[in-house]
Design goal:
Elements: H1 4-13, H2 17-33, H3 49-61, H4 66-73, H5 77-86, H6 97-111
Length: about 140
């Protein structure tokens, strides 16, 4: 199968200038109608109990995959999995583990915008006891 560039080169070699002009017009039309679309999701929505219930409803009533549900409601697939498999985010409890983790992460982001490298802690490996070197060419009792 030839690429478009190879096709264009073949048209040039055979002197098919009308076909090349037509190809250029098609490219220009494509450039005019092409739009730049935003990414699927710029930022995910905040998980709420209402959103979690909507995810469960979509999961129960449709044959959609977790990825399709995530795209539809504007969260990532991992959040959809948490709701479906573990029942997370179904209540407004601010002391729920997922809410606590979210709040801690937000506090870390507000407090320190730049991540700091962790200090390296070197642990000394235990040193093996050195045996005196055996004379060359002879076996010592401990060598075998």
């Amino acid at each position: 199968m030839a690429t478009l560039k190879e096709f264009e080169e073949a048209l040039r070699e055979h002197g098919m200038h009308m076909a090349l002009a037509l190809l250029e017009r098609l490219r220009e039309r494509d450039r005019q109608t092409r739009t730049i679309r935003p990414a699927r999701r710029l930022t995910g929505q905040k998980m709420t109990p209402d959103l979690a219930r909507a995810i469960l409803e979509l999961h129960a009533s449709t044959g959609m995959t977790q990825q399709e549900i995530a795209f539809k409601v504007g969260v990532n697939q991992g959040r959809v999995n948490e709701v479906i498999k573990r029942g997370k985010w179904l209540d407004d409890d601010p002391h729920a583990p997922e809410a606590v983790a979210r709040d801690k992460a937000k506090a870390r982001m507000r407090a320190d915008p730049k991540p700091r490298p962790k200090p390296s802690v070197r642990k000394e490996a235990p040193r093996a006891a050195k045996r005196p070197a055996a004379p060359q060419g002879q076996f010592a009792f401990g060598d075998i």
